[in-house]
TrEMBL record:
<protein>
    <recommendedName>
        <fullName>DUF262 domain-containing protein</fullName>
    </recommendedName>
</protein>
<feature type="domain" description="GmrSD restriction endonucleases C-terminal">
    <location>
        <begin position="573"/>
        <end position="665"/>
    </location>
</feature>
<keyword id="KW-0175">Coiled coil</keyword>
<dbReference type="InterPro" id="IPR011089">
    <property type="entry name" value="GmrSD_C"/>
</dbReference>
<dbReference type="Pfam" id="PF07510">
    <property type="entry name" value="GmrSD_C"/>
</dbReference>
<dbReference type="InterPro" id="IPR004919">
    <property type="entry name" value="GmrSD_N"/>
</dbReference>
<feature type="domain" description="GmrSD restriction endonucleases N-terminal">
    <location>
        <begin position="31"/>
        <end position="232"/>
    </location>
</feature>
<dbReference type="Pfam" id="PF03235">
    <property type="entry name" value="GmrSD_N"/>
</dbReference>
<feature type="coiled-coil region">
    <location>
        <begin position="536"/>
        <end position="569"/>
    </location>
</feature>
Length: 681
């Protein structure tokens, strides 16, 4: 689980120091022996990738760096073996290209070879499975134009890419002046300047496992790691005194760590973590979620053999990233990446001052969001609206940058804190209204799946904002005591579900959920299911067929006989007719017959009849939205109607009257979020 190491360095497989010295200069690599393991593919960088790297480092040396002391190259992950060699787990392409650049410049500027720091090889690269590649690289100057090489590259793909990369490097530098090339080489390797540095990681765990997880995306070397190196490097302090520098950087490191921890926290005793992160950032289930098994315990704390599986965000995701996204324009991040956006600002002015300015801006964003994530002593409806509107808009794809900029604009143009928050709420409400159509009763599943899900989420959120207005409600959870858990919504992968699901899959779902397996059990479940369908608004013709089949099944039950082949065929045909009737009825696919269920709840009860769903909800109430529980408690009926009819109404069906009352409740709750015809947004 979470500890200081994997918070600060993104994963527990990577060994780092305190975050201030996790960089190695090119000169630091002198004398190192690298070994590329056999499981890795060969060198494959294209001419464009080589040129991109060359342009970056050349522009830093001769372009606009405004006093920045070093250029940070992307990460290399290694594991040292018993012989002292560094086995390259990730970063082979970059490391090989650096080797080729050094070898070309040394050969092109032969006079420099007399200098002691340039004699012999800078570092060595060997290949576990391709022995000839190392020798070829050492003699690349002589090899790349030889007749033998021209033949070899036709059959040896490694040699081919080495030569193509070397030719790209040669063409790049041939366009430069001799003096510039010499200065560049001196700067690239000079131990006193250390202008070019690499993010350096050494693996703790088994090499093959680290490689597999890196390449499957489970341990991404994120931009956040490079951003952290930028903010916590020794040259990033705005203080002149060394002790003050150390203190400043230590404070940054501690604040970084505390922010990461707080953003991952659970709310109270909830199952799911990341209460704040899932409020501020969209979650991609396929990419971001993993499943963890937890042993259940009995009343005296003894572990049971049965395990419970629940979802959580991957530990490798650095949660602090969301606050940087709040202060960097979303468009720029898409174009250049988050790190590059920050690094460009770092180069554009005095380094330490700009770093401090950016750090202060990020801190202000962190403080603002944390201040609105939890109830405070002075909690009021305004704070509650800010929290829930923000979460709703993030879910609907509005960037956290745009939302935070809205806050800053209102903060700068307000007289006091109360006015600032009121103006911000007004702006958020305008954004919410853009997400809500007028004709909600016309929306149909699955065509309008996304907007239907969004509207039902807003329907639930309004209860958390404004509380329950139904005195008869059995659901007294105390909205004033908490905020909606967006982490539960995101990690539980909530989806749309039909309240009345007239689908014969409900028979097999019931069999499975109640652990029934025999043919007699299946007959009982089928009878119960058909009785529920018979009470629904189906055609008279279909009702008659259901009635006849129920008589056949009841007779079979009474005589303890199995259905004959013809009867089984007739039952199968009837079930298909019922399914087709459900699929073809638009009124059953509209918002008045839809609610939200978590993925696990949906798989357990998705096709059950109404009464069976109610049993599940009564038993496992915490799995469900409050509005969902109110549906099955029929809390949307008028009080006098409910009091008189509750005992008489069948719980097997969700009637047309139920659907109409439910729709009316949705429209009443969402009315304040629908744009007026004369309203400008």
């Amino acid at each position: 689980m979470l500890n200081r190491e994997n918070v600060e360095y993104n994963n527990s497989e990577l060994v780092q120091d305190d975050g201030l010295d996790n960089l190695k200069s090119i000169q630091d690599l002198r004398g190192f022996k690298f070994l590329v393991p056999s499981y890795q593919r060969g060198y494959r960088w294209t001419e464009q990738e080589v040129k991109d790297l060359l342009n970056d480092i050349w522009n830093f040396d001769f372009g606009k760096n405004n006093g920045a002391k070093f250029y940070c190259l992307q990460p290399i992950v290694v594991k040292q073996d018993s012989e002292g060699k560094y086995r390259v787990i990730d970063g082979q392409q970059r490391l090989t290209t650096i080797f080729l650049i050094i070898e070309y410049l040394k050969s092109a500027e032969e006079g420099l070879e007399k200098e002691s720091i340039y004699k012999n090889s800078h570092f060595e690269i060997a290949y576990e499975a391709r022995m000839g590649s190392a020798e070829f690289l050492k003699k690349i100057k002589d090899n790349f134009q030889s007749d033998e090489t021209k033949e070899n590259i036709k059959t040896n793909i490694d040699f081919y890419h080495f030569v193509k990369a070397y030719e790209s490097i040669k063409r790049f530098f041939e366009d430069k002046k001799k003096e510039e090339r010499e200065n560049f080489l001196l700067n690239f390797l000079d131990p006193h300047q250390e202008k070019y540095k690499i993010l350096w990681y050494e693996a703790l765990d088994e090499e093959n496992e680290v490689f597999r997880r890196l390449n499957s995306g489970k341990i991404p070397l994120e931009e956040v790691e490079k951003i952290k190196a930028l903010f916590l490097s020794k040259g990033a302090s705005s203080k002149e005194d060394k002790d003050e520098q150390t203190c400043e950087l230590k404070e940054r490191a501690e604040f970084w760590y505390e922010t990461e921890i707080k953003t991952r926290e659970k709310k109270n005793n909830a199952i799911y973590g990341d209460f704040i992160y899932c409020w501020l950032s969209a979650v991609n289930p396929k990419r971001d979620i993993m499943f963890v098994e937890e042993c259940l315990k009995d009343d005296i704390g003894k572990k049971k053999s049965k395990k419970n599986t629940f979802p959580m965000l991957r530990d490798s995701i650095q949660r602090i990233r969301v606050y940087f996204e709040a202060v960097v324009p979303n468009k720029e991040i898409k174009e250049k990446g988050l790190f590059r956006c920050i690094y460009d600002q770092y180069l554009a002015t005095e380094k330490a001052e700009k770093i401090q300015e950016m750090w202060d801006e990020v801190k202000r964003a962190i403080i603002f969001f944390h201040d609105h994530a939890y109830i405070s002593k002075d909690d009021d409806r305004t704070r509650r609206k800010i929290f829930h509107y923000l979460g709703f808009l993030v879910y609907n794809g509005i960037s956290i940058y745009n939302l935070y900029q809205d806050w800053k604009k209102k903060a700068n143009n307000s007289k006091n804190e109360a006015e600032k928050k009121e103006k911000f709420v007004e702006l958020l409400l305008k954004r919410v209204k853009k997400e809500v159509p007028k004709n909600i009763e016309d929306l149909c599943y699955p065509k309008d799946r996304k907007i239907l899900k969004s509207l039902l989420l807003l329907f639930e959120l309004d209860y958390w904002i404004n509380g329950s207005d139904d005195d008869y409600s059995e659901e007294k959870r105390g909205y004033e005591e908490g905020y909606f858990e967006f982490n539960r919504f995101a990690l539980g992968e909530w989806t749309l579900e039909h309240i009345h699901a007239q689908n014969s899959k409900g028979i097999s779902t019931t069999m499975k959920s109640e652990n029934k397996k025999s043919e007699q059990d299946e007959r009982e479940v089928t009878i119960e299911w058909l009785k529920g369908v018979e009470e629904c608004e189906v055609s008279e013709e279909l009702k008659q067929e259901i009635k006849e089949m129920l008589e056949i099944l009841q007779e079979s039950k009474t005589k303890n006989k199995q259905l004959d082949s013809l009867q089984k065929k007739e039952l199968k045909s009837l079930l298909k007719k019922i399914d087709d009737d459900f699929d073809n009825r638009d009124d059953l696919h509209k918002i008045s017959n839809l609610t939200l269920l978590s993925k696990s709840a949906n798989s357990a009860m998705g096709n059950l009849i109404f009464s069976k769903k109610k049993e599940k909800i009564d038993k496992f109430g915490w799995f469900f939205f409050t509005t969902t529980k109110m549906i099955f408690a029929r809390d949307f009926l008028e009080f006098h109607e409910k009091k008189e009819k509750k005992e008489l109404l069948s719980y097997n069906i969700f009637t047309l009257e139920d659907r109409n009352k439910y729709l009316a409740a949705i429209k009443r709750r969402l009315a304040s979020y629908v744009k007026n015809s004369n309203e400008k947004i």
